[in-house]
Amino acid sequence: PDAAMQEVREAAKKAYIDDFIMQxxxxxxTSAGVKGANFSMGQRQRILIARAILRNNPIxxxxxxxxxxxxxxxxxxxxxxxxxxxxxxxIGIAHKISTLSMMDRVVVLQDGKxxxxxxx
Length: 120
Known about the structure:
- It contains 4 helices and 4 strands, in the order H-H-H-E-H-E-E-E.
- Helices cover about 40% and strands about 20% of the residues.
- The relative contact order is 0.13.
- Helix 4 links the parallel strand 1 and strand 2.
- The protein has a two-stranded parallel sheet. Strands 3-4 form a two-stranded antiparallel ribbon.
- It is an alpha+beta fold.
- The protein has one domain (about 5-120): Rossmann fold, CATH 3.40.50.300.
- Helix 1 packs across helix 3 (about 40-55).
């Protein structure tokens, strides 16, 4: 609520959701519905990524952050996140190892136990 509209739009552009939002009848004033029901899962993921970018916290938690995106959008957002998350602590949870390509260190868990630690 404290962000200027220009900051909101910049975050949305980095998450590749600004064009979609601008095509909505009320643009950024459009209701997302209960739990984002008015949008697809991929659109909701991109909105959540934009919100995380806007908050600019020192720690990001990405839980299957790109799982509902097509390959091209995932590539674009991953590239964008690479620059946004420089010098941040990122905890990424993913089933696809490619999603974690930006991480300095990957910890693999199996049955609740660490089975490997290394680079992507």
